[in-house]
Amino acid sequence: MKRETMSTPTVSIILPVYNGENYLRLAIDSVLKQTFQDYELIVVDDGSVDSTPAIAREHGSRVRYVRQENTGVAGAFNHGLRLAAGRYISWLSHDDVFLPTKLERQVGVLESHGAPAVCYSDIEIIDGSGEVIEEQVIPEHDRQNALRHVLTGGGICSASYSVLYDRRCVEEVGAYDAAWPYTQDADMLARFARRFPLIRVPEKLMQVREHDNRGGRSKKWELEVVHFFSTQLNQMPLNELFPELPANATRDERASAYLWLAHTLAKRPFPYYRSAVSQYRNAIRERPLLAVTDIAAIIKLGWRSFRQHANRHSLSMKLKSTFGRRLAPS
């Protein structure tokens, strides 16, 4: 990936933002207060129409501010990547916060590792006012198991919030994919997991903000989540997901692997569990006569999907009825 600057900080922090005036100043301040100071902060404004430009510029030379036409978060981050000069790369969303020792601890871990790797940490979930409402310990998996946990929506997916990685990692796997506007972080984490170790720092070094205006959780997000995990699993060679499978794995062994994927996804929250359908289909293709317990799991998944659809339809009808009454002429 071509660099467009001659400076050589140790870390490049890329902060993509679109209309982020509510929290941008807090995000920037959390970087400026880091105990590790050998970094550059690149704020990529994705065509904001609020006071984002003024907030970014009020920090002077400590923040490199660039503006572009709106392309989405992946396009904005990739713009920052082209400008970045650091040996290590970090993503910071405009509404999240670095805790003071984040860079120091993660840089130390990667320096000690001595080879290209991806580092992440545990996180705190905060509300709109900055109060901690949850603490999350992000799972750690050995190298051969990490990919299948990423692609079944496991807790490891939350590593995406706090990753710091050697720039050689992203140079090898390529930039963020704008074709996945809602799941580009899971896609990148999966690409990393295929080639590099994911190393956890067992400390809470990041605060992730939950608020009403946070992206995602829309109908488009729901559809993309199901499509992403189904597509990725169907395209991924089974022996990459299960390196322990013998090269000449039997159909029964392959069916067991698909059932593990399906059962794991079926336990996930909505809408992730809907991705289990394609994996049950793969298992049946390998082993048409499934065990009674496997058939029961498929029936349970179908019933769960039906109830979810019925509940959503009922809520939609209630809302339409309510709004219809409110808008009806008197």
Topology readout:
Elements: E1 11-17, H1 24-32, E2 39-45, H2 52-57, E3 64-67, H3 73-83, E4 88-91, E5 97-98, H4 102-113, E6 118-126, E7 132-136, H5 143-150, E8 164-166, H6 167-173, H7 184-195, E9 198-209, H8 219-235, H9 238-241, H10 251-266, H11 276-286, H12 292-327
Parallel strand pairs: 1-2, 1-4, 2-3, 6-9
Antiparallel strand pairs: 4-8, 5-9, 6-7, 6-8
Explain the overall architecture:
By secondary structure, the chain is α/β, with parallel strands linked by helices. The chain has two domains: 11-209, Spore Coat Polysaccharide Biosynthesis Protein SpsA, Chain A (Alpha-Beta Complex), CATH 3.90.550.10; 237-323. It has helices at 24-32, 52-57, 73-83, 102-113, 143-150, 167-173, 184-195, 219-235, 238-241, 251-266, 276-286, 292-327, and strands at residues 11-17, 39-45, 64-67, 88-91, 97-98, 118-126, 132-136, 164-166, 198-209. Strands 1, 2, 3, 4, 5, 6, 7, 8 and 9 form a nine-stranded mixed beta sheet that branches. Helix 2 links the parallel strand 2 and strand 3 (64-67). Helix 5 runs antiparallel to helix 7 (184-195) and helix 10 (251-266) runs antiparallel to helix 11. The model is unreliable at 1-6 and 313-330 (pLDDT under 50).
